[in-house]
Amino acid sequence: MSQSPELLVDGLGLSEGPRWRTADMLPASCAKSAGDGKLWFSDMVAKKVRTVDLNGRLEDLIDVPGIPSGLGWLPDGTFLIISAVDGMLMALRDGLLESVVDIKALTGFGCNDMVVDSKGRAHIGSPGGGMNEFQVPGPGNMSVFGYQVMVAIDSDGVAAVRIVADRMTAPNGPCTSADGKTLIVAETWGFRLTAFDIADDGSLQNRRVWADLGVPTDGLTMDMEGCIWVAVPYFEYGGPGGYVRVAEGGELKQCIEVDNYAAYACTLGGAEMKTLFMCESTVLGQERANGHGRICMVDVDVPGVIANP
């Protein structure tokens, strides 16, 4: 690692679902505004999708009253947004939000993080409720099992959604491998990363523990060596968290601890895909509010995978 983390932007609420995009990664309608690159993210407290460039210039893109979370792009450039409380997958078209599919109607739960794979299929976590974040997780205070779902949208815009994994312990994250054949999901209150093989039809197979970390896991991103940077909200409940770089099997490669903040998400981007963007806000057990969150960044040695839309 070449330097210490520095502040990119503060005065946020809770940033989630960060995605780095340059002009050549976006449709023509968005490419000009992207310039040399921007970080796109959801501010869940402010209920807005926002962008920020490397100079810290913040822009609001769209309000999402149902609380935005995971973000992604279809191969045709359509921008997808999760509306978490509603359990809806939305699409932003001509400046307006449109409903794509009602995930809550299928699972009974809301939804959160998402990654769109190289074939345009959206992999979305639908976590069960029941856990009180203001109390230590454990017996008597744990989330019920949730689901991993997959949404495929055809050329006519018709969406098909189905459950592809059950008994998921607060599915979060997720990311796909560089070859697009593996999905890795953070099971936050399972304290692990879980991997699946992605079948040709989008089904998930060969479920396995990718890394057992013993701490809560949240947003993550993969680098070109196949290691994962994962946000850890806390190392001890009530305290701050950080970011760990881990190899398959659980070998810890690097750790970035933060003071007085919880770590909720991260992604790799920048000119050489070697900038780790780190989304931080109030530690668990305390109320989060507008102004409590920030995004920091640090240079790392191994570039990120650019296959994830």
Structural class of the secondary elements?
mainly beta
Number of strands: 24
N/C terminus separation: 26 Å
Helix percent reads under 10%
User: What is the fold named in CATH at topology level?
Assistant: Neuraminidase
Give the C-level CATH assignment: Mainly Beta
| Count of the domains | 1
What is the C-alpha radius of gyration, as a whole number of Å?
Answer: 17 Å
Encode the helix/strand succession as letters.
Answer: EEHEEEEEEEHEEEEEEEEEEEEEEE
Low-confidence stretches: none
Output the number of helix runs: 2
CATH superfamily: TolB, C-terminal domain
The averaged pLDDT comes out at 92
Q: How large a portion of the residues is in β-strands, by DSSP E?
A: over 45%
Overall form: globular
> Any idea what the CATH architecture is?
6 Propeller
Strand order of the largest sheet: 1-24-23-22
- What is the makeup of the main sheet? 4 strands, antiparallel
